[in-house]
Amino acid sequence: MTEIAITRTTNPKQPPADETLTFGTVFSDHMFMMEYHEGQGWHDPRIVPYAPFVMDPATCVLHYGQAIFDGLKAFRGPDGQIRLFRPGDHSRRLNRSAHYLCIPELDPVMVEESIRALVEVDQNWVPKMPGTSLYIRPTVIATETFLGVHPSHSYLYYVIVGPVGAYYKEGMNPVRILVSDQYVRAVKGGLGAAKTAGNYAASLFGAEEAQKAGYTQVLWLDGVEHKYLDEVGTMNIMLKIGDEVITPPLNGAILAGITRDSVLTLLRSWGLRVSERPVSIDEVTAAASAGNLEMWGTGTAAVISPVGELGYKGERYVINGGQTGALTQKLYDTIVGIQYGTAPDPFGWTRLLGNRLGG
Ligand SMILES: *Cc1c(COP(=O)(O)O)cnc(C)c1O
What we know:
Elements: E1 5-6, E2 30-37, E3 41-49, H1 61-64, E4 67-69, E5 72-76, E6 82-85, H2 87-100, H3 108-121, E7 133-142, E8 154-164, E9 175-180, H4 197-212, E10 217-221, E11 229-232, E12 235-241, E13 244-247, H5 258-269, E14 273-276, H6 281-289, E15 293-299, E16 303-312, E17 315-318, H7 326-339, E18 350-352
Parallel strand pairs: 1-3, 9-10, 9-16, 13-14
Antiparallel strand pairs: 2-3, 2-8, 4-7, 5-6, 5-7, 6-18, 7-8, 10-11, 11-12, 12-13, 12-15, 15-16, 16-17
Helix pairs in contact: 2-3
């Protein structure tokens, strides 16, 4: 593998106090960069001081959104060790997103190595307080200077990292979700399965309407019939009706969440009945009315986010008495335990920093 050149900052910053951390506002001293040019492939992998980019106003990513990213975390356990959570899976997903956006293939081994190397250089930025972590954002943007619609001939892959606060400072808090029967996030045949900028632009209007109506997020229904559940906000959605745990299948319109996969793997290992199948909003509201429903979102930021209430066609459906369900809580506790190294890791999901051979 190409050696990663490292240029350290001569002007290191003081990381903020762990208690003050929020999400996505503070970044570390360094970043990883690597360019692609046609004929040359990906070249010049390097870690350099964190700094702004200078861009031509005609750079194509600014106009047509040929951009992808991923999001993962590093955790400092009570044992002082730093663990990356499923970095290989996140790296492979970045490469799949690249494929959907006509971006040249990124070797997942190189991506994982870039992440590991950057976290190692900036390891003093991994916070210590329980619940805090280092958020890692690998990104690819199209950098050709032209105003025409075709895949760019040059790209920049970069990684930035920043410490983030505990998502649940006062225990898990079930959220109120508005089921959107008007707006959709993605459709089958579109880019829903890619982590690409445009999907988030597409979600803003619906999310803002939901917030104006007093809800935290939107439950997106499928883009064709507006009948089947797709995702919730920027998380995958799961529910338990009776003894069956259900999540929508990876049909091309939803993102293949790594947390989704972690939860499904755990549930199956616990012997629960798990179905990846279409689930209609009518089935969900019926189960909520019957008091027979537990519901939660899954994603890297929150791990698990319990849903306490749905708003749909002017009706309110309270779920599990507005309380966090027992299975929801158990999933959260188990995954967080694995991430911080306080629970066994039977599936080999964490990679210890400094362990170059780990998965
Ligand atoms: C990132 C993301 C998720 C969650 O994926 P994780 O790998 O679990 O973090 C789900 N849905 C969308 C739309 C996302 O962008």
